[in-house]
Amino acid sequence: MQATQQLSLPLAIVQGEPMVNLPKGLYIPPNALKVLLTDFEGPLDLLSHLIRTNKFDIRDIPVFEIARQYQQYIGLMQQLDIELAGEYLFMAAWLTEIKSRLLLPKPPSFDDDDENEDDPRVELMQKLLEYEAYQQGARWLDSLKIVGRDVWPISIEVETPPEVTAQIDLDDLNAALQNVMQRALTKVAHQVSEEPIEISDKIEWVLSQISLEPVSMLDLLVAQEGKPGLVVTFIALLELWRQQQIELQQDEAYADISIRRAA
Amino acid sequence: MSEHQQTLYPIVQALIFSSDQALSAQTLFELLQLEYPDIELADVQTALTEIKQSLAGSGLVLAEVGEAVRIQVADDYLDWVYKLYQQTPPKLSRALLETLAIMAHRQPVTRAEIEAIRGVSVSSPIMAQLKQQGWIKALGQKEVPGHPTLWGTTPKLLEDLGLSSKQALVDQLETIVQRFIQEQEQEQSQNRIDLDL
Amino acid sequence: MSEHQQTLYPIVQALIFSSDQALSAQTLFELLQLEYPDIELADVQTALTEIKQSLAGSGLVLAEVGEAVRIQVADDYLDWVYKLYQQTPPKLSRALLETLAIMAHRQPVTRAEIEAIRGVSVSSPIMAQLKQQGWIKALGQKEVPGHPTLWGTTPKLLEDLGLSSKQALVDQLETIVQRFIQEQEQEQSQNRIDLDL
Q1: HEC states along chain B?
Q2: What is the largest CA-CA distance in chain C?
Q3: Is A194–B112 a contact, with Cβ atoms under 8 angstroms apart?
Q4: Does C73 contact B11 at a Cβ distance shorter than 8 Å?
Q5: Which residue of C lies nearest to B30 if distances are taken between CA atoms?
Q6: Which residue of C has its CA nearest to A166?
Q7: What is the rounded average pLDDT of the residues A219-228?
Q8: What is the C-alpha separation between B180 and B172, in angstroms, rounded?
Q9: Taking a C-beta distance cutoff of 8 angstroms, is the pair C24, C31 a contact?
Q10: What is the rounded average pLDDT for all residues in chain B?
């Protein structure tokens, strides 16, 4: 999972001056660093990463140090032209606010239990905890055997009987269209197949061309279709004749065959 | 069974059971060659024969469709599947949904045009099922050699989807296509930035 | 195999191979009773056990999903199926899994509520992918200004994750989230006691 990748980001790269003066002093290429930086799923993810890699106590966050490191990351991202979501800047502002509130003298308190409510870090801690809890949830989902990724169920297609209407909804159609487009992307080029000459198509077309007036079979042949077209036309005529939809007439051997709709 | 056959048998079985269309021995052979360069077409045919035999009395059969094979429910047991479908109507297969989606978006459209977009052939059972459900109909014929049938969607499909008009369906699918294209372009320009570094 | 079993085996096999969702022994039993009033649930279970055994080494397995069973490609042969379809298994990004975890646990939930927990916006491609997988759906609209859409999970998600019910999914996430937060808080009160000493 990506999380492990994220945790393996070496801290030395991002601490101290070398990080600020890009690219001098960096021992990983900016491209790789960029990948690591864009890997963060937002400011909470970045903060949580900083706390874990520094082995800080989430219940007692050293805000000054964390804010400093956070600012360095943001600076690095800006240098690398990574489009910074507004949320990152909002978090930076929040950290600054917490810092300044910690610097203010505390009003006298007579109740030790109020300690937490006065601590401006509590809300941040709760947000971090909740987010990290859902990261655990995401890891659990990832650990499951998921159909389409780890599992391929077998379902032999059986034609739906006429009395049953299959379930369909628009989301299914949308998803299917996206699948087609996705697959088309991964293919180098489309194989454009020639239109096959279907007997059923030919039968319908022949029916549309004939009337009670006889027409010559030659008139029903389409030159561009070549021999396959001729064969299919002939089979279509035989089929229509068998169904008694047309009448065929030939005056003598090898003469033209005329066709008309059966009366 | 030779050692070779023991290797091929489960692979071929997994492939023909999971394929949504009939597979030819040649197709299977070409796929298997990627990993096993020294196999022969005859090995694949032997595996298919073995699978066919092993299915005797199992409720399933290996059916031959021209040069290709497909797993089907044996005729004697189709009624049982229908009974099941009456209890829980089946979902539509991926192949069927893709065919219907392209047809709805591009209508009027020929079968070969759909195949060109999907990259795989549209099987006759799929067309039959779409017609049987009353979702598609012939709209006419394309004025090209072969006069292929032009297909489109029916009012029943709109009704089953809960849509008011054919235009609403086409527009909805067009939105999906446009969004997809936009996302691809964004990704590509993103990639270009990566390369500049 | 008893005569009874010989009759049931191919029927059960045809049913579980052609069903597009996992089937429970109970469902199969009720269906079979229509024709064979004197069978017992145990007979169905015996047939399932036999099918399971007969699939050994075949490239396919009978898998249990909660109370139900389905046939699927054996893990070792999954790569071959992806090769056949010229696909790679879809990647589920961390962002997608986090969004899904929050949505599943908090449902019905708005996008803004998810964003508040993740501290970052939920991108449209992620919502699109979740919808494309058929894993989430709109459950309605929240009665606040703007009427934002409330999202929740679908039965398809449960089936794709191999879970028996929505409750099982919500409960499991509740356990994970609560355990994590409690552990951290216990450490906290532990620390305070340490400080008091």
Answers
A1: CCHHHHHHHHHHHHHHHHCCCCEEHHHHHHHHHCCCCCCCHHHHHHHHHHHHHHCCCCCEEEEEECCEEEEEECHHHHHHHHHHHHHCCCCCCHHHHHHHHHHHHHCCECHHHHHHHHCCCCCHHHHHHHHHCCCEEEEEECCCCCCCEEEEECHHHHHHHCCCCHHHHHHHHHHHHHHHHHHHHHHHHHHHHHHHC
A2: 77
A3: yes
A4: no
A5: C84
A6: C20
A7: 79
A8: 13
A9: no
A10: 88
Shortest distance, CA C66 to any CA of chain B (angstroms): 18
**Extended strands (E) in C147-195:** 149-153
Handedness of CA B14, B18, B22, B24 (dihedral sign): negative
Residue C57: CB atoms within 10 Å: 11
**Which of A177, A200, A220 has the most B C-beta neighbours within 10 Å, making it the best mutation to test the interface with B?**
A177
Q: Would the CB atoms of B59 and C19 count as touching at under 8 Å?
A: no
* Cross-chain Cβ contact B77/C17 below 8 Å: no
8 A C-beta contact, residue C133 and residue C160: yes
Contact with chain B for residue A163, Cβ under 8 A: yes
CA dist B98 and B160 (Å) reads: 17
CB-based contact, C61 to chain B, within 8 Å = no
Give the closest of B117, B129, B180 to A178, CB-based: B180
Neighbours of C171 (CB within 10 A): 13
**For position C3, what pLDDT does the model report?**
65
Dist CA B80 CA C84 (whole Å): 30
Pairing of the two strands A257-261 and B60-65: unpaired
Single-letter residue type at B158? L
Query: Contact partners of C by the rule of 3+ C-beta pairs under 8 A?
Result: A, B
Q: Nearest-CA distance from B190 to chain A in Å?
A: 10
Q: Picking from B18-32, C73-87, C183-197, which range would have the lowest pLDDT averaged per residue? A: C183-197
